[in-house]
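TA notes, week 10

Several of you asked for a full example with nothing omitted. So below is the full record: structure tokens for the whole chain, then the designed sequence directly under it. When grading your own attempts, check the secondary structure regions first.
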């Protein structure tokens, strides 16, 4: 974890291994390997949300030793191929929005695609991948007392020039507006933290800003405790706010995939965008989550993580 105020008194919700699952009444406990791309926010969140529904099996992130009974691989095709060559059954989950047709070429893997049912098309998954629906967090309640702000930023696959221009320009004003409105701001990003650290150090002052890597903290728990939420256009952030019927303001999109997703969201939901970095209104805690009421109930399905976990659990008992 990377923090700007290491002497702060409020500990961050850390992400760690799930508590041990009770052993079944008979027979050895099945083992599932979890693999995600830690530099991509959507990949990290998708893997954790599926893992939360894997009760009754043991989970591990250690690929060494005896082969697992099955593996959940999020976005890492090379890792999925290596496991398939070892004879390990694999669920390969494509977690993030790409904006184009995804070619699925992993023969032998169970291919799944994170795609909320309400997101406008066209979106041909290609290659036989099945849309999984929305991958929601296992805990959908928010904390009774909420304070401060959460800024969830994804710089994965963003061109270098765009990432640098955002970090040295709008980000500083955004964080200052957040701390002025709510007193403190948790900034969580998936990659390029070295680019953000000096900018946030200058903008925060008095330890009011804390910077963390998404792979090191529990993003869903941070959201539950936050009074305001501003995020990059990513599927993980959208589903997080949707599942909790929580207010959300989107950051200006960075890179082609975020721009494509932001355009689709604008066609379906009235989600505001932080167009003026110095505007304090996105950081003011609000109970208004009217955007989610616009969803068609038939498309308002949040059980994607359960579906993927069910298929993965079935693979652990499949004959070799």
């Amino acid at each position: 974890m990377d923090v700007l105020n290491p002497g702060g008194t409020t500990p961050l919700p850390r992400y760690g291994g799930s508590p041990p699952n009770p052993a079944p009444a008979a027979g050895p406990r099945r083992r599932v390997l979890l693999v995600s791309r830690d530099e991509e926010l959507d990949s990290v969140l998708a893997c954790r949300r599926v893992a939360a529904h894997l009760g009754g099996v043991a989970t591990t992130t250690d690929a060494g030793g005896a082969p697992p009974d099955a593996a959940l691989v999020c976005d890492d095709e090379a890792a999925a191929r290596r496991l398939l060559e070892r004879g390990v059954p694999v669920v390969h989950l494509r977690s993030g929005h790409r904006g184009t047709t995804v070619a699925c070429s992993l023969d032998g893997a169970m291919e799944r695609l994170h795609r909320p049912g309400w997101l406008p098309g066209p979106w041909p998954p290609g290659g036989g991948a099945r849309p999984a629906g929305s991958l929601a967090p296992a805990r959908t309640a928010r904390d009774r007392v909420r304070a401060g702000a959460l800024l969830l930023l994804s710089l994965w696959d963003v061109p270098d020039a765009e990432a640098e221009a955002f970090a040295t320009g709008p980000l500083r004003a955004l964080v200052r507006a957040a701390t002025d409105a709510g007193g403190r701001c948790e900034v969580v990003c998936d990659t390029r933290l070295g680019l953000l650290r000096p900018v946030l150090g200058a903008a925060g002052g008095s330890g009011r800003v804390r910077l963390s890597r998404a792979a090191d903290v529990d993003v869903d728990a941070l959201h539950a405790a936050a009074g305001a939420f501003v995020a990059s256009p990513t599927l993980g952030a959208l589903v997080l706010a949707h599942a909790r019927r929580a207010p959300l303001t989107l950051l200006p999109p960075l890179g082609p995939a975020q721009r494509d997703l932001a355009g689709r969201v604008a066609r379906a939901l009235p989600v505001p965008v932080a167009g003026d970095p110095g505007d304090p209104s996105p950081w003011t805690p609000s109970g208004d989550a009217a955007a989610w009421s616009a969803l068609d109930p038939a498309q308002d399905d949040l059980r994607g993580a359960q579906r993927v976990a069910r298929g993965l659990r079935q693979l652990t008992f499949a004959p070799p």
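DSSP finds ten helices and eleven strands in the chain. Use that as a sanity check on your answer.
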